[in-house]
Amino acid sequence: MSITRAILFDMDGTLLQTEKLAVAGFHRTFEDLRQQGLWDGPTPDDETLTNVLGMTLEQLWNTLLPGKSEETKRIADQLMLAHEQHLVREGITDLYPGVRELLPELHAKGIALFVASNGLEAYIDTICEHFGIKRYFTDLYSAGRFQTKSKKDLVAKLLRDYPIQQAVMVGDRHSDMEAGKENGLFTIGCDFGFARPGELDQADAVIRHFHELPAYLPFL
Q1: 3-17+95-216 architecture in CATH?
Q2: Phi and psi (nearest 5°) for 165?
Q3: 105-137: b (≥16 Cβ within 10 Å) or e
Q4: Contact indicator for 93, 21 with CB cutoff of 8 Å
Q5: Phi, psi values for residue 192, rounded to 5°
Q6: 170, β-bridge pairs
Q7: Rounded to whole angstroms, how far apart are CA atoms 17 and 86?
Q8: Which end of the chain is least crowded, N or C, by CB within 10 Å?
Q9: For the packed helices 70-90 and 19-35, what is the interaxial angle rounded to 10 degrees?
Q10: Would you give per-residue pLDDT tens digits along the chain (220 residues)?
């Protein structure tokens, strides 16, 4: 059955206020790596840690652990996932204002909602379960689940798997806008996440608060 209208959401910096979660998780992960003798340098500064959010896992660890083995990066990935899952349950972060209210409204209008994230499958699932929003999504697509190399590839796979007549990509990074444009989607940039100046220039529309989203959806 064809889906008439759909919205593809990035997670970090779009639905979830990720900075506190990710920075704390990275600090704990690098401490673990030092204790295991896998890293002997300092933890990257918070700006560097924030700037990698939205990258694929491969890009992220290549940036933060240059020259380290694939095994070390795999261990770092597992440590980070465990720390983030614990931190979510500890209540260190939250969804952006308006997300809890707007997702059920969009779902009730018959719009199919998806997550399209470069994160790990278990990470995305933990967030959606913890905040009680999983029931509003048709499916949760992640690079960790499908081993895609870019957000563009992940969105392309989603559109192959689901026959969607009209879809919108919503995210906060250049990779989100690129993924939407390359796959023929209307794009909405979130200028409340981690976007740097100029990063959302190619977006069809830009919002500064999540509750502004319906005003820019082309099918409402």
Answers
A1: 3-Layer(aba) Sandwich (3.40)
A2: -75, -40
A3: ebbeeebbbbbbbbbbbebbbbbbeebebeebb
A4: yes
A5: -130, 5
A6: 9, 188
A7: 16
A8: N
A9: 130
A10: 689 999 999 999 999 999 889 999 999 999 999 999 999 999 999 999 998 988 888 999 999 999 999 999 999 999 999 999 999 999 999 999 999 999 999 999 999 999 999 999 999 999 999 999 999 999 999 999 999 999 999 999 999 999 999 999 999 999 999 999 999 999 999 999 778 889 999 999 999 999 999 999 999 8
Alpha helices in 109-190 (DSSP H): 121-130, 143-146, 151-161, 174-182
Q: Which secondary-structure segment (H or E) carries 209?
A: none
Residues present in the chain in total: 220
The owner of tokens 């083995």 is 69
Vertex 138 angle, CA 116 and 178, to 5° = 25
Helix (H) or strand (E) holding 82: helix 70-90
Using the CB atoms, write b or e for 147-177: b if 16+ within 10 Å: ebebbbbbbebbbeebebeebbbbbbbbbbb
- Which amino acid is located at 177 in the chain? M
